[in-house]
Amino acid sequence: MEHNFKEEIQKKYSKIVAKAWADDDYKKKLLANAEVVLKKEGFEIPAGLKIQIIEESENTKIFVLPRAPLNFDKIEDLEKRFTANSAASGPCGCSPHDAPPLASSW
User: Do the domain assignments include residue 90?
Assistant: First the structure.
């Protein structure tokens, strides 16, 4: 079930990216009012959730700094997570497959 959900999200994402690449007006709308465009594309956007879309340029890479977990107080907590998690898990305890891919050109 979860696998199908992830596939569905990936298909919607790919469609939006392709449309933005092909249609400048669509891209402008997406960048200006992401929530409205994403809802039209079938995404459920909870009330109050802000979506920010940033277009990458040729000379810019985007690094998303996630918010700290609620139970994260100090660096020692992160070190404990690194130690407690297997090599297959990231520092957040999630699978690296759940994280967005980094550009291979970095």
Answer: yes
